[in-house]
Design brief:
Elements (H helix, E strand, L loop, with lengths): L4 E4 L10 H21 L7 H24 L7 E5 L3 E6 L6 E4 L3 E6 L3 E6 L4 E5 L6 H17 L4 E3 L6
Parallel strand pairs: 5-8
Antiparallel strand pairs: 1-2, 2-3, 3-4, 5-6, 6-7
Helix pairs in contact: 1-2
């Protein structure tokens, strides 16, 4: 199915520690582990060297993890995609996609921070719009949601503040 819009998300916005702080910590860990290995006196068969190497490998794995989750270095892994039949939200490598079939939606409520979808079975789904990377992306998501809502004759309630 052809996508009407695919907009990248910033997954680091919903973490307790920001991406910049995580990156600084892991770089500090890598420097510290390297420093411990380089300055250890004695033979290279020392048991503590083994622990330092494990620490260094774990720090490198964590670096790959935060880069995969927060950058498009390994492809865009966090996005909102709007197609004629579905709204899909993917929040990173290790989280599953949330697909909202538009034929089951009875009402869409938009505000500045999220889009809420009322479903035929009485449940509610929501898409977090605060995670959209740019204002242009937020505008594109809002416009495409209005287009598909019009196409499926879904009533839309827009309670967002005036656009700048």
């Amino acid at each position: 199915m052809k996508s009407l819009a695919r907009v990248g998300l910033r997954p680091s916005r919903d973490h307790k520690i920001s991406f910049g702080v995580q990156l600084a910590l892991v770089l500090l860990w890598l420097a510290y582990g390297t420093f411990l290995i380089m300055t250890e006196p004695g033979s290279s068969t020392n048991d503590r060297h083994f622990i330092h190497y494990i620490f260094l490998v774990l720090a490198f794995c964590y670096l790959l993890f935060i880069l995969a989750q927060n950058t498009s270095l390994f492809g865009q892994q966090s996005y909102i995609e709007i197609t004629p039949a579905y709204v899909v939200e993917k929040r990173g490598h290790f989280k599953s996609k949330v697909a909202i079939p538009l034929q089951d939606v009875t009402d869409i409520s938009l505000n500045n921070t999220q889009a809420r979808f009322a479903m035929r079975d009485g449940s509610r789904c929501h898409v977090n719009l605060k995670l959209v990377s740019t204002r242009k992306g937020q505008r594109v998501v809002r416009e495409k949601l209005l287009v598909v809502a019009e196409r499926h004759a879904i009533p839309v309630t827009d309670s967002s503040t005036a656009r700048r």
